Amino acid sequence: MLTENGQVLSCGSNSFGQLGVPHGPRRCVVPQAIELHKEKVVCIAAGLRHAVAATASGIVFQWGTGLASCGRRLCPGQTLPLFFTAKEPSRVTGLENSKAMCVLAGSDHSASLTDAGEVYVWGSNKHGQLANEAAFLPVPQKIEAHCFQNEKVTAIWSGWTHLVAQTETGKMFTWGRADYGQLGRKLETYEGWKLEKQDSFLPCSRPPNSMPSSPHCLTGATEVGSDF
Questions:
Q1: Cα distance between residue 129 and residue 124, in whole Å
Q2: pTM of the model
Q3: Which residue intervals make up region (Disordered) (predicted)?
Q4: Is position 187 within any domain?
Q5: Does some domain include residue 201?
Q6: How far apart are CA 201 and CA 23, in angstroms?
Q7: Domain count, the chain
């Protein structure tokens, strides 16, 4: 929960440190305050076993160890950044040259939208939700502007395994998991995409739904809800 004065509270399961209270119980019924280095928070998002927050100064914090096991499996030999294994808010590295306006969390990925209209993504790419060829991104990576027809992104939403973005002219772009038709567009195939090497941090074959595409019927949408 985010209060009007920028404080963050959490309750529920803390089995993976997702409450941001490192020395708290494994479950919490009464909401507890999370310490974010005296930063005022303007946006929060909760994933399956991790959470993220953006502050008024544009800094992004992440906590919860839910993405760590996937990262270790897909990035063998690499040391994951601290924010993947922290049970208390840890600054997300790789975003120092940008100012985050909002943050998003899927089941196993995170994303942020900057004041410049840029989208950064990190975490699992199992369903192509990071618009990238890597199986896992341990460091935030920007989705190139040409993916959004060189327009600034003004709003973004995340489902469990897919994302939706809206640009300055009202165009809507969708990408990620599509086996239930959640992207609002037809695809060549879904079942044909599989990671070539599940246990290595190597490029994988790109699924047809991994790059943002604009379903014309959604242009100008004023409200979006993203689930599975």
A1: 8
A2: 0.88
A3: 206-228
A4: no
A5: no
A6: 33
A7: 1
Tokens of 53: 């927050």
Q: How confident is the model at residue 207 (pLDDT cuts 50, 70, 90)?
A: low
Q: Can you give the residue range of the structural domain that contains 154?
A: 8-22+31-176
Task: Residue 167: give its domain's CATH number.
Answer: 2.130.10.30
DSSP code for 143: P
Number of H helices, E strands in the chain: 1, 13
Residue 58 lies in a domain: yes
Residue 82 three-state SS: helix
123: closest CA among 38, 33, 60? 60
Cα–chain center distance at 217: 25
Dist CA 51 CA 43 (whole Å):
11
Structural domain includes residue 217: no
Tally of CB atoms within 10 A around 19: 27
The residue with tokens 């409450």 is: 19
Which of 17, 132, 136, 124 lies closest to 77, judged by CA?
136
Are the beta carbons of 174 and 162 closer than 8 angstroms?
yes
For the chain, what's the residue count?
A: 228
Q: Cα 66 to chain center, whole Å?
A: 13
Only one residue has tokens 């030999």, namely 77
Tokens of 196: 């070539």
Dump pLDDT digits (tens) for 62-106: 999 999 999 999 999 999 999 999 999 999 999 999 999 999 999
